[in-house]
Amino acid sequence: MTLFSRLLAWYRRNGRDLPWRKRRNAYRIFISELMLQQTRVDRVIPKYRAWLRRFPSWKKLAGARTRALVISWAGLGYNRRVIAARDAARQVMRDGIPTTAHDWRRLKGVGPYMAAALAEFVNHERAIVIDTNVRRVAGRVLLGVPYPHLSDDARIRRALNRILPIHGAHWEIPHAMMDLGAMVCLSRIPRCEACPLVRVCMARKFFLPDRLAATLRRRAKQQQQTRIVESRHAEKKYPDRIYRGRILTWIRVHGKTRLSTIGYRVDDTYDPVADLDWIRNMVKRLEKDGLLLFHSGDTISLPRC
Question: Which among 23, 65, 291, 295 is least surrounded, fewest beta carbons within 10 Å?
């Protein structure tokens, strides 16, 4: 059996039963890919189902009010995505459903990864889809890298492009790799004994019992070095996107709030002198994205429509 034959045989027996895989519906796959960015599958599933009850089609999303979108998106983070999604739905209503990765890329908020995923899963166009799990599986199996990083994506893409079938159900392969990464080829210590690709995996040697401790030490050292580099540039405990999400959550739950008090609500180290411009600039960015209204009198609220 070839590598992909083994992988697909495993997938058809063990693959996850995810609601957006049940039928090839462009809108549902679009929403799932949008929600799955930076959010775990188990958190997405109930949000996805609730979303489809409220916005079941491109038309409903295109006509949705900002306030309703912000409320329905609560808990998924990166709130600008939901406004971009409405713009994308309006493009689809005007121009039709895209049929290629190039066309998907033209939609508001659709980046290279999402365009490839939509082209593969919706249109069955052969595309290289690399998410966190695909990166880990392909990086280990094809390149022998025990802990692949974003910087390895170009090599992974080339390796996959060489061996990904041109014909047949190639759109199942990314799903299979995603599930293998989520269930077997785990981030820290993979379950190699349960892996259908263990015999061909180039990184298997790093996870043998006599080498595992050294592999984990090397990974811990790399992670520590990454944190040190990141901390040099961080004035706050979290990146701004976390605080923007907190601002939006507070306004959504508590309603209109004064700018002079919102800083205390979202940051336990807030300094009203040193941090005022910082908090005002985040509120202005949220307003620019269409997620908040910044009123005269220094108050903030959700959009009225």
Answer: 23
**Ramachandran sector of residue 296 (left: φ over 0; alpha: ψ -120 to 50; beta: rest):** beta
Task: Tell me the pLDDT tens digit for each residue of 95-154.
Answer: 999 999 999 999 999 999 999 999 999 999 999 999 999 999 999 999 999 999 988 999
Please give the sequence-ordered ranges of beta strands (E in DSSP) within 38-129, or none if there are none.
none
Q: How far apart are CA 79 and CA 74, in angstroms?
A: 8
Among residues 144, 182, 196, the alpha carbon closest in space to that of 2 is found at: 196
Interatomic CA distance for residues 147 and 200, integer angstroms:
17
Backbone angles phi, psi at 295, to 5 degrees: -85, 160
Pairing of strands 299-301, 293-295: antiparallel
Q: What's the DSSP call for residue 20?
A: G
d(CA 276, CA 12): 55
pTM for this predicted structure: 0.78
Q: Which amino acid is at 113?
A: Y
Residues classed as catalytic = 33
